[in-house]
Recover the amino acids of this structure.
């Protein structure tokens, strides 16, 4: 009985040992296969680094503003008798926009003119009599003062009538009418906005470190997503005397022609401001840059060898210095050489030594002057 038990135990140990040996061999084989496993290459697109001459510019965001802009309002209270404009129309300096009711003032003017005429007659009579010595000089002086007083009264009423005729203070484009015929207007009540749109201002902030590079007369190029395919050229006409304590920017104002009044006050625009001479850069699509706090980098495609000495096409990470952008491109000023093959898309999947397969059938946008109408 005891002999049989030892036999069974021996058989069990033999089976367990055999199974353990088999599993050990399987693990060893898997480790060996894993060590020799080569991951499949990652599909990427590439561009060849080329030198280009870029103008030295700052890319900024600005806001269009009217050179002259007001809300035309009533100078004196009164009832609207005539409206001589349509919303959104162009007007010239001095065009009559609104006429208020002046019937009462005109009646007062007629009475004042009658008093003035009588005072003139009395003054002429007193002037003759004082020469003849018939009346004292004091009566002549009273007649002269009365004439001046009545003339001033007439002038005052005429000025009131004129102030109730509301005119365009300058040439421009009207906004939306805010009054109706027969409406009573209080003094200062809004009638219609008026903006002078050509030429037009563009205001933008420049970082304080770039402020010394700004000069009156510097040229700039303005574009807007709301006016696709059109650019506007202008010049810097004013630089603020203080730096904003919140943004650390200095405000700059440029003046530019605005044919067709395409730019409107309040519109956001993109500004490219010239700040120096042209410079040599390598222009790459923005998608080629791997941005990181410790430095920006690109991946350069090159021939590599695996641990067994087999050659393959892989990538190495290359840190670069960038300075500005233009259209779809960024300017690389150091870290690359002309002729380097740089990964333009798919870089986020890469690490140093990653094997790659180049497929340039579809490329990311890479134009320094993209046309917004494309795509």
């Amino acid at each position: 009985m005891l002999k049989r038990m030892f036999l069974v135990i021996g058989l069990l140990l033999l089976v367990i040992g055999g199974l353990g040996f088999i599993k050990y061999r399987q693990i060893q084989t898997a480790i060996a296969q894993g060590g020799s496993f080569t991951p499949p290459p990652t599909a990427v697109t590439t561009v060849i680094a080329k030198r280009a001459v870029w103008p030295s510019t700052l890319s900024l965001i600005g806001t269009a503003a009217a050179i002259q802009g007001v809300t035309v309002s009533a100078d004196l209270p009164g009832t609207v008798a005539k409206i001589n404009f349509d919303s959104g129309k162009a007007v010239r300096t001095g065009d009559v926009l609104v006429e208020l009711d002046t019937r009462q003032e005109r009646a007062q003017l007629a009475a004042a003119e009658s008093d003035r005429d009588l005072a003139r007659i009395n003054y002429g009579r007193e002037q003759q009599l004082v020469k003849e010595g018939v009346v004292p000089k004091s009566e002549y002086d009273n007649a002269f003062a009365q004439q001046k007083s009545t003339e001033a009264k007439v002038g005052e009423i005429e000025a009131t009538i004129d102030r109730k005729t509301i005119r365009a203070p300058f040439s421009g484009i009207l906004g939306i009418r805010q009054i109706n015929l027969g409406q009573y207007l209080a003094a200062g009540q809004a009638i219609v906005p008026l903006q002078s749109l050509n030429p037009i201002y563009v205001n933008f902030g420049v970082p304080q470190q770039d402020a010394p590079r700004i000069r009156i007369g510097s040229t700039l190029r303005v574009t807007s997503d709301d006016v696709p395919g059109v650019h506007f050229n202008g010049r810097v006409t004013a630089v603020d005397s203080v730096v904003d304590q919140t943004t650390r920017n200095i405000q700059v104002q440029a003046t530019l022609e605005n044919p067709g009044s395409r730019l409107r006050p309040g519109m956001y625009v993109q500004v490219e401001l010239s700040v120096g001479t042209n410079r040599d850069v390598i222009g790459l699509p923005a998608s080629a840059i791997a941005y990181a706090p410790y430095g920006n980098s690109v991946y350069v495609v090159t021939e590599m060898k695996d641990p067994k000495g087999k050659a393959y096409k892989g990538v190495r990470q290359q840190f670069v210095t960038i300075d500005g952008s233009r259209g779809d491109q960024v300017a690389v000023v150091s870290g690359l050489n002309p002729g380097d093959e740089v990964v333009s898309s798919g870089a986020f999947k890469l690490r140093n030594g990653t094997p790659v397969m180049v497929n340039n059938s579809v490329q990311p946008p890479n134009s320094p002057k993209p046309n917004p109408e494309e795509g």
